[in-house]
Amino acid sequence: MDHREEIRKYLRELLLQKGDKQPFADDTSLLLGGRLASVDAVEIVVFLEEKFGVNFSDIGFDQTLIDSVDAIDSLIQTVKK
To answer: Which of the following CATH numbers is that of domain 3-80: 1.10.1200.10, 1.10.599.10, 1.10.8.50, 1.10.510.10?
Structure first.
């Protein structure tokens, strides 16, 4: 499974935990759009730190960095450089 699919799967699971079964595109705003809450942002951060080695203490936290599959993918690509 590629990392974009892992991200989609993880976000889908978070949404399902909230009873949100609506589909989403890779550019759908999930946090700023209100489908996920700030507590979910913390879970996403932990997931990214553990799964992809993203160190938010180095880059700082900004919700826009983790607001969609596209944003998360871009963040991972930046960190890998």
So the answer is: 1.10.1200.10
Q: Render pLDDT for 32-56 as a digit per residue (tens, 0 to 9).
A: 999 999 999 999 999 999 999 999 9
CB 32 within 8 A of CB 67: yes
- Mind listing the pLDDT tens digit for each residue in 1-41? 688 999 999 999 999 999 999 999 999 999 999 999 999 99
Say what the pTM is.
0.92
